[in-house]
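Here is a tokenized protein:
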Amino acid sequence: MKTTLALAVLAALSTSLHAEVNITGFASVNAGKVLSGDGVPQYDVPPTFLADYPIVSAYTDEFSFEPESLFGLQVKADLSDGLSATAQIVARGAENFDATFEWAYISYEINDSWTVQAGKKRLPLFYYSDFYDVGYAYVWMRPPADNYTWQIFNYNGINLLYNGSIGDWSLSANIYGGREDDENNKLLSEFFFKEQTREIWKDILGGVVTVSNDWLEIRATHMMYTNERYNAAGEKVIWDGKDYRDGKFYGLAMNADFGNLFILSELNRLDLGGNLDTWMLSMGYRFDGITPYISYADFSQDGEDGEDHNTTSIGLRWDFHSSAAFKIQYDIVKDNSYSLAVAGDSKSLTFGVDLVF
């Protein structure tokens, strides 16, 4: 049903007589397996590499193409006079290739600097949030999973964009607000709690500022929200005597590109009464169309019983075509959590092709 609806909307947009329609696409055909791993026996988790937390993209010791393969289409209809509509539809192997809307919003360009948008968009928490699904846009197989772990990654709301410059620096900013109500949150329902869990992030209010010159880019972000959660019985989850909790997210990314050598970094903190800190550091070197790289990512939570894991990755990207890249990556996961073990230690190998069209 979802696939049929998505295709019908695409057809309607592409045949519109009142708009200039631009259709672009992206795809990833990836495969891999866990070479060795402990799993988490007390939670009946077999040897597993959790490559993407929000959609539970997980590799096991069985070779598979499903966890990270995907196909996406983005349709933008320009209605003239600064008004446009954008829809992005993605079919993921981790979700049986059932096509669903990831984005659906309208934009109005107030002037050359300011744009207002409303609808469903990706939460701009992380540096790679806006193009996370477009594997061709970054060097790794995926942005480091320890950094990109949260349950909610989309929101419904409104945002205001600014683009300008200060001297030799480009400046962009985004102020946004809204909410997301996920009646059957995939990460909580299918992986952590093993029962239907409704996750609500409401009263979302956040901002992003990015400045860049010819070799350095700095991105800072902050978001506030209120979290409510319902268990399988429809009862509200209680935290410290309250049926809600307030969260504050802080993020800083700094990327340096010296031509062939590049260094990527990201540091994030989620304050939910206690702190959940994530960070990653990556470095690579371009040899014509071949780019070897290495990265390290870490997740740590306050308290001795908190969640604590890290991933060391070594990989290579080969741009064998102007619109396609082959990647191969070896990941070593150390799960140091005491009582909140996620998937245990593992060593995994993944590879695949990312392309845009």
